[in-house]
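REQUEST
  id: r-88c1
  op: predict_structure
  target: LTA synthase family protein
  payload:
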Amino acid sequence: DSSELAAIENYIETNYVEPNSEMFGVAKGRNVILVSLESIQSFVINNDVYGQEITPFLNDFIKDSYYFDNFYHQTAQGKTSDSEFIVENSMYGLSRGAVFFTHSGNTLNAMANQLRDMGYYTSAMHANNKSFWNRDIMYEAIGYDYYYSAADYEITPENSKEPWGMKDKYFFEQSVEKMKMMRQPFYTKMITLTNHHPFHLDEEDKLIPEYDSNSGTFNRYFTTVRYMDEALKEFIQELEDQGIYENSIIVLYGDHYGISENHNEAMQQYLGKEVTPFVNADLQKVPFIIHIPGVTDEGNGSVISTVSGQIDVKPTLLNLIGIDTRGDIQFGGDVFSEEHPNTVIFRDGSFITQEYVFTNNTCFSAISGEPIEPSLCEPFQEKATKELEYSDKIIYGDLLRFYEKRDQKLSIQ
Ligand code: GP9
Ligand code: MN
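RESPONSE
  id: r-88c1
  status: 200
  body:
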């Protein structure tokens, strides 16, 4: 009931992260273009296959952006849909199944809901069947004015690759055409698809060689990441050509890992080191990139190494737009803030702080990677458990039905 929500609100208020005053409102009035990058992991950034860069475009782009190099995905069985849920709501997904299927009727106070209330035109863009992951239902609750799904794109055998359909380059190209028609300011969440298992690519789209290991999946992965990187390059250019770029912020994040532990042997060969549980935890890093034309471009970017995760995206972006999130039901915080706890909690109760990595029921030193005294991790274990429980309670009880602050506090300052 609503008293349960009060306890949770207290916890959230106590852990509230004040915005960084210099960053607050920096992107006020801008369009927000949020791009979910399928299956990209941070280990491909500034890395190569047989001497060839895997992400030449992103390697340059991060110099013109805020690049968060200690940012983690926090997804579980809900994969892409979990990342969408976490990013939009600053809440955790569920430990089993996908919120998108199990609780699509819940009341939410998502980033899209809030931006829509602020007068933004909100949408999601993804060239897949609209009911995949139950998106057509869940997107209503998240607050998108429109979902541009497969039916809205011109998909042909020439611009597709099975099994996933439309290739990223064409997806971006046709999406920009749609953006040109959107009322501004707009918020759109785009989801790429080509860099998805089984990582199949047409010959003409292969820009670097495959890797050579016992895993075909692992070998092909680099070529599809490289393709996505090229598609992003063309996309940004197109935004510039169409005059959308200047008045927008472009935010990229990885949805979840692409290479599972089934490919540890190949990964080991590539990294040149054993994939221990500690290394595996590190491999869950995904890129998070905030590009603000006129602010971060022309080499004015920086690398921010705060330990953070997808849960932090919503408060971070809303603060950039100049929307105060105090009083919101949220478990993340503004990554630009000095008050950010420098911690990320995963769905299974493991976590990473500046000092500790708790994974596989073992407490490691984040510095040395060696197992340490378990009691050092205990205080954080409790915090992690509590936070996950609170998030679950909100979902299971549909508690945002009782959330009242929302209507009072909406204002761009
Ligand atoms: C499908 C795409 C991929 O629409 O989002 O989903 P995933 O398998 O990565 O969860
Ligand atoms: Mn995905």
